[in-house]
Design brief:
The chain is α+β, with helices and mostly antiparallel strands. It has a single domain, classed as 50s Ribosomal Protein L5, Chain: A (2-Layer Sandwich). About 40% of the residues lie in helices and about 15% in strands. It has five helices and five strands; from the N terminus they run H-H-E-H-E-E-H-E-E-H. Strands 2-3-1-5-4 form a five-stranded antiparallel beta sheet. The longest helix is centred in the first third of the chain and has 29 residues. The two termini are about 35 Å apart.
Amino acid sequence: MAEAKTQVNVKAAEAAEKKKAKVAAAAEKKAGGESAPPPKGYVPRLKKIYREAVAPELFKEFAYDSTMQVPRFVKVIVSMGVGEAKENKKLLDAAVEDMAHITGQHAVKTKAKKSIAFFKIREGQEIGARVTLRGAMMWEFLDRLMNVALPRVKDFRGVNPNAFDGHGNYSLGLTEQIIFPEIDFDKIEKIMGLNIAIVTTARNDKEAKSLLAKMGMPFRK
């Protein structure tokens, strides 16, 4: 009975988070980062695991007073820095295309916030691409990242267990986009790295690490 109540409350928390995400998603869509909505009634595999197993385990582990305190994923930000785009615009277009294949969502080109003479970068110059994932797209990406892409890394021994920011968010850097099966090695312009930032509602790094570990993030031991 208590476990069923926990799951119901987790769903309520997710509904509140979903409402917030709609506002943020609308802003993202306006900026060009729109994606096709998932089929009605569709629930990602990883989200089911979170609801049915991970959330109840976290509730017990940290002895929360309310299920609203159970850490949840808010969004995942995937970005690519393409410094060479200042000489070759084709590379930036290729990065945007690769990110669309990897995330299933259109990428937004990012601009330099300030001029850096040493790197010959001007303020406002397009030098990267970014995608912000929420909802079903976020869950699907995390599932593919942890269970398909990371195990394809050569000599993979796990991800850095200390790459948290002190506020429950985790950052991960990848050196090659070709670890994602959606990328055709024969069609890429250049091998490029990408950064992944996972934002959670965890109050601290310990809670966030437990959340990610239980969801299947292969931390290095």
